[in-house]
Amino acid sequence: MQKKEKFLFYYFVSLYFFYIFAYKFHNIFKKNHFLNTKTTIHQLISKETDNWIMQLFRYTIVGGIAFCVDYGLLYLLTEYIHFHYLISATISFLAGLVVNYILTTWWIFRHHKLSNRTLEFIIYGIIGLVGLLFNNMLMYFFTDILHFHYMLSKLITAILVMGWNFFGRKIILFKNNTSNDV
């Protein structure tokens, strides 16, 4: 396959996995009665919530957006600028981290444990750096040891690192509001 075809293939595979993940969340909501006749799409998307499943659902959407930035930049830096894939993975991960922070603090976790946003971003970044360490170790493992294509390695790695990032940030940086509504 040509470079562009490989990128498109892995990009659409990642979108497919994102769709499957969203579908599974939908089934979890239905099974556990998080979705009922009173719940509207507007409430699911815009209402503040401390429900960790709803926050994880939103984090998946935010993560999907940040992943598109990360994944696209990884491809561009590696294939067109010819950076080593681990250098590209580091730069693209950090770009995704900034996108993720902005969207997460705006949409998902609105109640902060820290009033100092600079300190909050530093801690958010430290959690992200641990995620980056996991990211690069897993990228190396899947790419150099198991001999997966680096774009496939990124798909697997992104899912694993997302779990660390969500729970690390939720527990360390953000507090629950008194309301438990969806």
Walkthrough of the structure:
With 182 residues, the chain is mainly α. The chain has helices at 3-31, 41-46, 52-79, 85-108, 117-145, 150-172. Helix 3 (52-79) packs antiparallel against helix 4, helix 3 (52-79) runs antiparallel to helix 6 (150-172) and helix 5 (117-145) packs antiparallel against helix 6. The longest helix is centred in the N-terminal third of the chain and has 29 residues, at 3-31. The radius of gyration is 17 Å and the shape is globular. The model is unreliable at 178-182 (pLDDT under 50).
Brief rundown of the structure:
This protein is an all-alpha fold and 182 residues long. It is 76% helix and 0% strand. The chain has helices at 3-31, 41-46, 52-79, 85-108, 117-145, 150-172.
List keywords for this structure.
mainly alpha; disordered C terminus; 182 residues
List the topology elements.
Layout: H1 3-31, H2 41-46, H3 52-79, H4 85-108, H5 117-145, H6 150-172
Helix pairs in contact: 1-3, 3-4, 3-6, 4-5, 5-6
